[in-house]
Amino acid sequence: MLTSDNTNLLEWKAFLKKNSALPFTDLLTGFKKIYGSALPIIWAPEQYPIQSNLHEEIKKSGNTSYPAFYSWSIDKKEGFWKAMIDSLSIKFEQPYSSVLEKSDDPDQVHWLKNARFNIVESCFQAASEQAAIFYQAEQSSEIHTISYGALKQKVIQYASGLSKNGFAAHDRIILYLPFSIDAIAFYLACIYMGAEPVLVSDSFSAQELTKRIAIIKAKAVLTTDQYWYADKKIAVLPKVLEANPCRIILYSEEQSDASTIRANKADLLLSDLLDVYGTSYPPYYHTTADTISILFSSGTTKEPKALPWKAATPIKCAVDGKLLQDIHAGDVVTWTSGMGWMMAPWLIFAALLNKASIAVYGGAYSKKEFLDFTVQTHVTVLGTIPSVVKSWRAQAFQPVANWKVRIFSSTGEPSDAEDYFYLMYLNNFNAPIIEYCGGTEIGGGYISNVVELPIALSSFNTPAPGSTFILLDENKHVVEQAGAGEVFLIPPAIGLSQEILNKSHAEEYYANLPVLPAYPLLRRHGDGFHKTTIEGTAYYRSMGRTDDSMNLGGIKVSAVEIETVVNTHPDIIESAAVALQSTGGGPERLVVFVHTTHETDNVQLQKELQKIIQAELNPLFKIYDLVFKENFPRTASNKLMRKELRKELAGHF
User: The Acetyl-coenzyme A synthetase N-terminal domain covers which part of the protein (predicted)?
Assistant: First the structure.
């Protein structure tokens, strides 16, 4: 890719000013003609309509530029994180004695030593009458609103009800239901009373739910009977009944008696937990070593990783939201996320700790009704994933009238530059796109865009403040100005995991790493990026995963998980799952190599395998192509070399 400079951006601005009424295809043609193969830098800091939080924090820190501020956040981590905690007015029952206590072992680093606090208390510092959550369900035109004061009361009432019904601190309760006001209130209530809410996407099969119940020894599962999604009724309760947890807590508008769920006297309706008299239930105070929530992330094996979020992880969410997505008090923030994905708790903490409102749409984000909802609720910060934007473009939606969106953000999977040009077109090119990449094990992002630097389509322009990384090429040399490489994080940072509940954390992230004298401590992550430096700013473009995991529909899954279910088909001897991006970038596509017992019809076999994956794993995992192959590449120790299979496909995408 050729470099770009301000000349292209100035030419594009002039073209847009003169031709803003042109249809999308003509604008795209003009854009391509101006930029050619150069990096599409489409946004300059002076275009941002308000003073950003980041601009204010740069001034407060005594720095004069973003690069200087970022360097300060790394060189003076204690000072940076103290300033951020102070800016959020985090409430402590007992203050910390030190921000960071370092250790040679990254899993023994201690943040906020001696602090005792419950992060939920800090979520209710906005005015009690301010809207905390807007919610609209698919198939309904009614928008429900709950204020900060009412949400706080509901959280305390649920916490009291949980306690009165036999739940205690450190009990683990799975939330297996869609995003809603009550799901958010219940999640916060668990943390408030010391329990550990566990998030599992309700799109996962009963088998996958059963697996997760066993891994974390769940005391109960909160679920719903059914809900509307993409004009279809999605039945959730039957999968929970098949998984057969110890207790079921049912959120239902149809059932009025818990005894109708199944023959288990311990089951409850969610409405039974709402203790209307529990208005003064005390919070449980955590140390930063305490788990407040558990999320699952797939590694490179067939068993998902159970990753605990600690008491300080929400601070990472909120600081990212403040500095990267530029969330201000009074903003309305939404994300096209389900309750089982890490962006759900991220959104809860990033919005509430910054005194903003959350907008939740309970349905398919691909529908025009979702965009209408964001207009009606005056959404100012809209987070999404590339697959959703691609669906909007496929439906040829036109620019959205009366949109208040000031900033877009994107995560979950690599984006396509043309699709994201279309996203900016939907808002008349009035809002930048903050690409944001991280993970459940990070509590947020490690690389992003900031509005204080120029922004290029489908690219990142900075590591997240307070964290850093290097890129290593195939020869294990550091990529300096330009080139492709694999990401290795440099600990410590608030939010970085220090424990996996069901496997070795050290083995997962720190074993068998390159030895570099200049970087004695590295952490494996698995993302690949291509770096370009223009006029002092580094731009990074995602190259997808470098390990044997993949992002499908915004959900991380391991190749082994897919291969395990594919191999249950009677015609399959062996399989190998890989994911690749198209040459133009964008979301990863799943390709399955198969060695079969006999010649078989490709189309029919793909349909049958898709059905198995849908039933056993997740209907969001779509097979893009099926490739027949008898001999799979292997190492001398017989390990499958999926990297070689990806190379075979590279020229066909």
Answer: 66-123
